[in-house]
Amino acid sequence: MTTPGFGEELRYVGRDGLTGMPARVNDRFIAETERAIERYGMDAREPVPPPAPGPLDIAWLTVAKLGITRAKVARYGLDAYGRLDVPQDTSTVGWNPAYCQLPGGGGATFLAAHVYFGGRPGIFSRLSTLSGGDSLEIGLNDGTVHAYRVTSVVEYALAAIDMGALLRGREGIESVTLMTCSGPPNEGEYAFRTVVLAERAS
Questions:
Q1: What pLDDT is stored for residue 80 in this prediction?
Q2: pLDDT tens, 47-64?
Q3: Higher model confidence: residue 106 or residue 158?
Q4: Which single residue of 44, 73, 78, 202 has CA 20 to 30 Å from 145?
Q5: How far is 35 from 202, CA to CA, in rounded Å?
């Protein structure tokens, strides 16, 4: 009997959905996950609205280098194809409160907006020009302001993005992820995403 190699063993290490810790998975789970990735955004379903607002909510985003000052941030759920829903205009920044955390709680916040929409540049059209050390601020509806500094700017092929990891962030580090489409459009679809990672400024 052949002993499985290290690479083969890694195939069966997944992530616990509740704790985020490593957990063993089986071939059925792997096959279902691969099928879900293959079908992502292709099967119509009922849209899922965001949860009802609580006492605290994100109000605005400022990214000085991009000329973004107190841009409106709105709440979204999932669209009719099971994808994170996004704003339908060029000026609003979207966040999905069911899948990430409010700033200030020590966790990860995920915000997304358009690079282009309706033939016009979106609010994140210059997102890729950010670099390490650039600053951004997020304001809450109670007047609290949270400051972050960019640590990396990466362009990912859409198929290679681990959205779960982006939404959860790094354990023990308060962070913000900004994301938009990138690369040449193909019939209105973009094959790449610009992802900006930022950590809480000390």
A1: 73
A2: 778 888 889 999 999 999
A3: 106
A4: 78
A5: 42
- Is the distance from CB of 108 to CB of 169 less than 8 angstroms? yes
pTM here is 0.77
Q: Which residue has the tokens 């679809």?
A: 189
Spatial neighbors of 180 by CB under 8 A, at least 6 apart, are: 112, 113, 114, 115, 122, 124, 125, 127, 193, 194
Is residue 161 within 8 Å of 177, Cβ to Cβ? Answer: no
* Cβ neighbourhood burial of 129 (10 Å; 0-12, 13-18, 19+): exposed
CB 174 within 8 A of CB 106: yes
The structural domains of the chain, ordered by start, are 6-39 (no CATH), 58-200 (2.40.260.10)
Mean of per-residue pLDDT scores for the chain:
83
pLDDT at 6 over 60: no
Measured in residues, the chain has a length of 202
